[in-house]
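User: Please predict structures.

Assistant: First:
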Amino acid sequence: MALTPDDVVTKQFQHVRFKEGFDPDEVDDFLDEIVVEWRKALAENEELKAKLAAYESGDAPAPAAEPVAAEPVAAAPAPAPAPAVADAAAPGAASAGIIELAQRLHDEHVAEGLAQRDQLVADAKAQAASIINDAETRGREEIAKLDRERTQLEGRIAELRNFERDYRAQLRSYIEGKLRDLETTATTSGSTPVSAIGL
């Protein structure tokens, strides 16, 4: 497959969860493709340099043409070596450009991954702080509610103790009053015959 700079620019790597960066196998495979294309470009560059050197030294066969027409035709191909040099240098420059582009893309993706990681960590910390805040608020509310209930229960216990004390005092005074009444009726009935009482 012929690799173009657009292929490097548009190459998308899958994000890997629970690890930083991209899937190492996918990145390695893509870099292997770049290396193959780069080696092809270097070999082609060497071949073109060899052809250029052979052409300039005169070892290459001249194009078949009539001697009269050779002058104007020879003048026309003379500028041809310049484009050949440009073509020969172009694959090397393209390879260097591809590698530089790949490195820049790698750096951008790593920076993007780091930024995303930092954002996720910040979001998780904010969420944890929010959960802790909510838990502390609910804890304080529950403690305040239990304190109010305890105060109410203590007040109710105090009321019941007061009621018990008052009830005992009233019961005691009632019983003592009945005992006094019984003693007074016993002393007054001691002189009255039982038949007069109606028993």
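Second:
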Amino acid sequence: MISQAEALQLIRVKLSDSRWRHSLGVAMTAQGLARQHGENPDQAYLAGILHDYARDLPESELLALARCHNLIEDEVEVLVPDLLHARVGSWALRRELGIDDEDLLAAVEYHTLGSEKMSKLAKIIFLADMIEPGRRPYPGLENLRRLCSADLDKAMLVGLESTISHCLERGRLLHPLTVRARNAFLLACQSRTPRM
């Protein structure tokens, strides 16, 4: 497994300055959330550093890699190739760096679109990506930060709904995985709420 120091060095040269700072923010935020929620903080930090491994690849390269390795799950990804950076990143981490930590790879894969089957680490990386200190303020950010400390599933629901609202407001396509993930977290949260 790659060390944190090796990952930091690798990502420093692979990403733009702003993406590098973002990755550091995600790593530190993920580490803190992991401590709060009983997960491995070192694994969360590493996943945070590596989560945008393929983010700075050109759209044409993302699409070519995804097509070549059968990584495309929906036509939306062909129309909006940037959505592929998470899945391509997970694939590339396994292939290029030999990372075989399935939980870490899944956390990288799901950090953009979400999934119905997210581990606690995957939730932490998804949320850390949304709330890291360098994020520009957006409606609901402070509430989401509070929820992340209290309840990861409720935070996921709010985070996914924020993502969907953002896409709707800008007339962007919605990915079915994000919609399914939102519905799964909604049902999970409702099942824990006592009915009157």
